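From the pipeline queue, job 12 of 40. The input is one protein chain; the requested action is below.

Action: predict structure.
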Amino acid sequence: MNLGIIGLPQVGKKTVFQLLTGLPADKAPTKDGIIHGVASVRDARVEVLSAMFKPKKTKFAEFELILPPDIQPDSARSAAWLEPIRRADALIHVVRAFEADSVFHILNSVDPARDIETVELEFLFADLAMTELRLERLQKELRVKPTPQKEKEKEVISRCKEQLEKELPLRNLEFNEEEMRLIRSLQFLTLKPMVTVINVGEDLAEGQTRNAALVETLQNRGDTVVFLSAAIEQELLALDEEERQAFMADLGLHEPAAHRLSRSAYNCLGLLSFFTCGPDEVRAWTIPAGFTAPEAAGRIHSDLQRGFIRAETIAYDDLIKAGSEKAAKEAKLYKLNGKDYLVKDGDIIEIRFNV
């Protein structure tokens, strides 16, 4: 699964890409004009477990990022910039909320609410055109050979069209599994989970206060919102660890905003982490919500899934409360789970298997 970083020109997309991947956008691999990278999920639980188990190696969970071309307002709805965005599973929309005379704005002034509305309308109109095209084709198919599935698809897409005509995104509608299967191939833009990054100036508190009403609007429509100051984050990147901690303390920050953004983006994709811990490695593994223990085991190695017997698990909070692996086992906090067990975020797992 991948997450696309989108936005108008000159809003800070390449900076966000670098903050998440650790790689400047101009040095990242490119394919068909799209920049690709891998982001680590800066999960504090991994660091705590690493301190507890003292492994030779520590590895965070990861997800894929793409950086498509800039959004171009008022261009054709079939414009090339739309297609790579359609292929993303979720979106990070970077919005400019900082003043800088040296940085031009495509709409000539800084207005994050207007810019978000501009992009949202582009997506709404593109999705509306998609529904109209698909309904037209369905009408023809139903005249030739009507089927219950096509009738159901027509019903679902008609509901989508009604929502879009009200200028409301599709992610505010509820779809069951069957309905999602019918419309998934259309890759609706307004159906994708959205993280909105509000890129403010160096006064984070002032930026948050000034945009409080906008945040409420975005959250009410289902968006996740993260504030960051690209200027501050770039300064943090240039410092060593001791200087970075001192600088963040002066600013009243507990961690870089990029860390919060990585977790928000990860959650936006509907992903969760389970952990394996030992003297060789502490590692966070990525799975979609709803994975069973054997499916999770398969992410570690196919043999573990094929020969799965049991999963010995303990919740992260229970282990930390116990204070050590030994104390947790003495308190009998570890549990043996079978093939039907649904892995939870934060589970620490040891797989028992036989091949």
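Job complete. The CA atoms of residues 73 and 122 lie 7 Å apart.
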